[in-house]
Q: What sequence folds into this?
């Protein structure tokens, strides 16, 4: 099979999957967990427990506050100690529910056994309800509520479900481990989502630097025998796991600027989400656990881990369990080195979408002083959206918002390829992020003005 | 927590830097430099040394005392300019003429525009053309060289010079294998096509440059030469001659591909290459100078901002 990948740009950082051979370990329970109510894209959930309440693992502790929002469950059993603001990893105050851990009791109906259930339920609405009730969100990074994504607006039809198994971020290996260790469950999860979407074609897009995962998925897909399901090896290139890039790689279709994947018939779900869907639908288990990698360039092999964690465990607690912060660490990152967030507050807690604690040494992460642009064009070559970062940078400095919009600053996916590749170390993405904010603001202001004008016109008619 | 860095993503960076890119260009020039030194002897080495050192020192001095921003100094870039300038000069050029060339290249063509990344015209070529029009005697004077290690050198006027004076018939019986390995006469950058092409392949493999500009120039020159040669072989030289002689290979591989003065998009580069190839052939066939690579590149340099405006990258998901 000819190797395929997305069509524009991309870079080839060293994949540094040092932790790939570390099997998933289950972290012991801490004394206290702090569960954020804003673990998903959209409106933060509203707490529905009170201080002093006893909760069980898997019990709902916060309810969605809008269409795009999600349930939040307790990941442990114990007593609610406090509900109030606590700093997240960027240092912003977010409402957290503090629970003192007592034992490990789960709510009734949760099946914690390893038995594989391969039979797919037929009731689409019931399955969607279950996914919603279990608080499943996209675990590829954006944490978009899964039940919304699996329920495309009337009139649009899913032609292809793409399972994002690219894990294109260097260092991260948690998706790889679940693909090896929990292959069948992921495949069943994919089959459930396939059914929900009306039985469309289903493709696992895996980068070819994970041959063991490709082999395991292929075997499992063949053995379980779901219809129209296949595994597609992809040429290694970052950002393959970007939603639009993956659709381009697998389906050879480009989502229009500002459009949704469903507009080209695509629905993309991460493999970790597929596992969460399996657990929710087949095992009644809400999304309260996930896998994460502890790794880095300055981490000795014995201190690297792939962990299954309970949501709400403090990062510092996990670091301690893994053997402490390495001496040479200069930066701690939650997520991958290309798009992850630098941790400003190490007492912050894990959320549904947490994927790593990544320690980078100064030599790996230090930004070099900015030099003069030599117009080499490497940033434009690297941009997977076909933008011209050097131009956007210049327009941003000139404060020319209309020209920024014309040159599609709003299409930036913030993958970091431009800044990664710039030989003069110009902070391209830093400035383009700001530019993007200005353009989005202008677009929104225009839409609001148009709406107000339309309303005024219609009220005049009346 | 205060001892850890907090900054926006991405948190890693590619190894390529401006200095490493320029270092790669210097490496790519080394084979051709080595051949020229062997062929022309110590005099060539003197020209190279004076040019390279002058360029670096002049850039350093201007950034330090005129700009007062020593951080703007990029020695490797000035070194490339110096080497390229030297490779465009006859090995007999007196040192003070070389120095004036360096002064014009860095001082006028590069730094007056604001230094690295800001210049419109290729500095080395501006330096060369300045010398060509100011000191024509030195710039077209060719001596029988005293090569190192007793390398045999046959020389006289350059091949293109001969053709300009006596027509295409004067080069009948020319062995193209000779021109591929050791061109007959010319400046350092005109001697060995093979050494230059080796450097070009190295740059493409190291992903320092894209090959499109160079290939576009070669293709344009070959096609135009083929057409004219078919029309009148006695007056117009053919494609192989035009590709292998003069400064075309040096110009196409190392001067036209200069980042700062070439278009940024692939198609822009192809158009730019076509323009250079076309102008080279028009000057060679119909101009008063025997060679036109420098002029062709400088003229197309002036068009680059327009090309950049016309050719943009293909955007994802937009028509």
A:
């Amino acid at each position: 099979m000819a190797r395929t990948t997305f069509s524009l740009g991309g870079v080839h950082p060293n994949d540094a999957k040092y932790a790939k051979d570390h099997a998933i370990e289950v972290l012991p329970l801490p004394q206290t967990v702090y569960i954020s109510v804003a673990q998903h894209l959209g409106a933060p959930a509203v707490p529905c427990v009170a201080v002093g309440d006893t909760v069980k693992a898997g019990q709902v502790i916060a309810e969605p506050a809008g269409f795009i929002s999600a349930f939040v469950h307790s990941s442990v059993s114990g007593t609610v100690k406090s509900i109030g603001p606590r700093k997240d990893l960027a240092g912003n105050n977010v409402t957290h529910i503090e629970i003192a851990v007592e034992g490990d009791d789960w709510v009734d109906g949760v099946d914690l056994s390893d038995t594989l259930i391969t039979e797919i339920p037929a009731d689409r609405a019931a399955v969607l309800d279950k996914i919603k009730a279990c608080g499943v969100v996209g675990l590829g990074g954006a944490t978009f509520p899964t039940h919304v994504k699996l329920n495309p607006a009337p009139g649009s039809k899913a032609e292809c479900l793409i399972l994002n198994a690219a894990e294109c971020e260097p260092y991260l290996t948690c998706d790889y481990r679940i693909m090896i260790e929990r292959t069948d469950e992921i495949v069943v999860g994919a089959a459930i989502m396939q059914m929900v979407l009306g039985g469309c074609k289903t493709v696992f897009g895996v980068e070819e630097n994970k041959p063991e995962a490709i082999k395991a998925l292929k075997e499992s897909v063949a053995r379980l025998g779901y219809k129209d399901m296949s595994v597609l090896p992809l040429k290694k290139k970052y950002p393959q796991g970007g939603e639009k890039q993956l659709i381009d790689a697998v389906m050879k279709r480009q989502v229009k600027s500002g459009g949704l994947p469903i507009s080209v018939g695509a629905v993309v779900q991460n493999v970790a989400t597929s596992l969460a869907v399996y657990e929710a639908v087949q095992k009644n288990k809400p999304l309260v656990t996930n896998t994460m990698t502890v790794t880095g360039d300055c981490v000795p092999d014995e201190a690297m881990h792939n962990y299954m964690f309970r949501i709400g465990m403090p990062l510092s607690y996990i670091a301690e369990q893994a053997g402490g912060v390495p001496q040479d660490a200069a930066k701690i990152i939650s997520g991958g080195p290309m798009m992850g967030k630098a941790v400003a507050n190490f007492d912050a807690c894990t959320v549904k979408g947490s994927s790593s604690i990544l320690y980078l040494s100064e030599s790996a992460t230090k930004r070099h002083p900015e030099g003069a642009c030599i117009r080499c064009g490497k940033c434009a070559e690297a941009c997977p959206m076909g933008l011209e970062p050097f131009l956007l940078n210049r327009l941003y400095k000139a404060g020319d918002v209309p020209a920024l919009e014309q040159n599609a600053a709003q299409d930036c996916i913030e993958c970091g390829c431009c800044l990664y590749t710039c030989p003069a170390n110009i902070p391209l993405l830093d400035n383009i992020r700001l530019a993007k904010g200005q353009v989005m603001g202008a677009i929104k202001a225009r839409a609001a003005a148009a709406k107000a004008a339309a309303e005024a016109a219609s009220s005049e008619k009346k | 927590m205060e001892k850890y860095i907090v900054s926006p993503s991405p948190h890693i960076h590619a190894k390529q830097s401006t200095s490493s890119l320029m270092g790669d260009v210097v490496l790519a020039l080394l084979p051709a430099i080595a051949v020229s030194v062997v062929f022309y002897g110590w005099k060539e080495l003197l020209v190279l040394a004076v040019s390279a050192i002058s360029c670096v020192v002049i850039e350093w001095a201007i950034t330090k005392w005129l700009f007062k921003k020593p951080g703007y100094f990029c020695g490797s870039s000035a070194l490339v300019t110096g080497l390229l300038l030297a490779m465009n000069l006859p090995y007999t050029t007196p040192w003070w003429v070389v120095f004036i060339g360096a002064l014009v290249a860095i001082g006028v063509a590069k730094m007056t525009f604001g230094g690295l990344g800001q210049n419109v015209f290729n500095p080395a070529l501006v330096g060369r053309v300045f010398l060509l029009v100011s000191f024509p005697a030195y710039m077209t004077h060719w001596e029988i060289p005293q090569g190192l290690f007793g390398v045999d050198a046959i020389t006289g006027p350059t091949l293109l010079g001969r053709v300009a004076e006596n027509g295409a018939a004067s080069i009948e019986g020319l062995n193209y294998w000779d021109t591929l390995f050791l061109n007959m006469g010319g400046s350092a950058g005109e001697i060995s096509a093979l050494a230059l092409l080796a450097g070009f392949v190295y740059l493409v493999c190291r992903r320092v440059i894209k090959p499109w500009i160079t290939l576009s120039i070669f293709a344009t020159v070959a096609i135009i030469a083929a057409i004219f040669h078919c029309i009148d072989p006695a007056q117009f030289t053919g494609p192989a001659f035009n590709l292998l002689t003069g400064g075309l290979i040096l110009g196409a591989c190392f001067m036209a591909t200069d980042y700062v003065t070439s278009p940024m998009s692939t198609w822009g580069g192809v158009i730019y290459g076509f323009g250079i190839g076309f102008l080279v052939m028009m000057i060679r066939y119909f101009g008063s100078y025997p060679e036109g690579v420098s002029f062709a590149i400088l003229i197309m340099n002036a068009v680059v901002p327009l090309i950049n405006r016309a050719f943009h990258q293909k955007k994802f998901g937009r028509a």
User: Anything to note?
Assistant: The longest helix of chain A spans residues 428-461.
